[in-house]
Amino acid sequence: MKPLRKNPHIYEINLMTWLNRLSAGDKKGLMLKDVPDRVWSDLREKGFDLIWLMGIWQRSADAIHRARRHPYLVNTCRSILDDFNLDDITGSPYAIVSYTPDPVFETIEDLIALKERLEDMGLYLILDFVPNHTACDHAWISKHPEYYIQASPLKSGKCPRGFFRLLDNNSLCIAHGKDPNFHPWTDTAQIDYTNPKAIEAMLETLVHVSQYCHGLRCDMAMLVLSNVFRKTWRRRVTCDASREFWGLAIERLGSLNRRCLLLAEVYWDMEKDMIDMGLDYAYDKTFYDLLVKGDVRDLKAHLAAPVEYQQRLIRFLENHDEPRALAVFGHEKIYSAMVIHATVPAMRFWHEGQFDGSRIKMPVQLRRRPDEPIDRELTAFSERLLLEVNQPVFHQGAWRMLKTHGWSDNQSHKDLLAWTWSDGEERRLIVVNYRPHSSQGVITIPAKWLWGSEEARLVDPLKGELYLRSAKRMEDEGLYVDLKPWDFHFFGIG
Asked: What region holds the Glycosyl hydrolase family 13 catalytic domain (predicted)?
């Protein structure tokens, strides 16, 4: 497989709902092997480098049972689907009972064939890996209960809060998986990362799964870091792991000469920790939060990090954990947010349904999506934007933040974001007014950036606009811009 280009594009597919939609009119339903090549090749032509098939692994019968008895989840699903029934709830794809494909999708042989199909098209296949926990009915629960955080029953005979009882062992309670800031995930069982045998078992699982894909999206990757795990379970564990799990995982993959990308879902500003540890890419939730907040000053500071570091961040406007982008940003802000997201250094992340303007956030347990009206304007804009940012200049080119200045009686330039991409004769200039008021300012153009031109042609392919400016004046004095609220320029320079 060829090495990934810089600033690659990744597309998340909710496998359950996606196949259900592709199967419309087919009573038998499609499996992954039935997906036509044109579907995958279309994604490749749109500029995607990696396809994340979210939720491919076998779901837990226990998790399905629990989900169908969860009042809030049931009511949420009922509010989404007019013709909802309990069979529409399938259980969480993150309560994994076995790292084999769920039978509704395909067999392990089909998965191997799919990896080869995508590889032939130049697409990387990304699959889930959940290190923190398993399903409550995973085989380890009965065979190796020592792999999990444990507790004894209370005097009342009940398990402590956040624990569940083994069916064949009344004297032992197992902890549910947990993020320290939220209630436990009651369809999961928490791995004990102070137990060397449990760590080894999870390392073997990672190595096993890595043979079926080109990379793993590592769920809640920071939860298994020693310092995080100790704080989360300080009342239940008395020691630390001798080495960090992720360091061991990278070492194990290297010893097998197996190249497998590790993409970390990570929060709490710990993305640098994950990258320093050797993982290939890490979520940049701060970028998303700043865009939602509309905080231009802090966004500029965030984008001032070294480019080499930013290129290893995963930046998104939505994913299956966050609300839909159009629902968050609205038509007013969505286009400027999309331009910012697509033109900064990073692994650029898009989500199935995002280009159509889907507004409904789907529970991961829900089997099918409701019909939503397609936002034709947003779809057309997305197609133009994807076409442009697929150009080599946005991947192998040099990125540079630009300074702006204004006047003593007008400092609105501080609300302008501006940067360039350059690759030989290919040059792009991006300017965004990411505020709810008009902004004016002068953009400082890098010296000799407009070499070889007396007249600069500023062509905006997203809007179909053309401006002619003196190249010398632009370099000497800068480029004056006057942008309406949430407006942008996306200039190719000719």
From this structure: 12-382
- CA 112 to centroid of chain Cα atoms: 24
| d(C-alpha 269, C-alpha 289), whole Å | 11
Write down the H helix ranges in 233-369: 245-255, 271-277, 285-293, 296-302, 307-310, 325-343
In the chain, domain spans: 9-135+192-394, 398-493
pLDDT value at residue 322:
98
Could you give the CA distance from residue 422 to residue 424 in angstroms, rounded to a whole number?
A: 6
The identity of residue 244, as a single letter, is E
Q: What is the DSSP letter of 64?
A: H
| pLDDT computed for residue 331 by the predictor | 97
Residue 494: pLDDT band by 50, 70, 90 thresholds?
Answer: confident
Q: What is the biggest distance separating any 2 CA atoms in the chain, rounded to whole angstroms? A: 86
- Annotate 379-434 with DSSP letters as a single string: HHHHHHHHHHHTSTHHHHSEEEE--EE-BTTB-GGGGEEEEEEEETTEEEEEEEE-
What mean pLDDT do residues 448-452 have? 81
Q: Tell me the backbone φ, ψ of residue 476, rounded to 5 degrees.
A: -80, -45
For domain 9-135+192-394, give its CATH number from 3.20.20.80, 2.60.210.10, 3.40.50.10540, 3.40.190.10. Answer: 3.20.20.80
* 3-state secondary structure at position 77: helix
Query: Do 189 and 142 meet the contact criterion of CB atoms below 8 Å apart?
Result: no
- Give the span between the Cα atoms of 49 and 40, in whole angstroms: 11
What CATH number does the domain located at 398-493 have?
Answer: 2.60.40.1180
Pairing of strands 439-443, 404-405: antiparallel
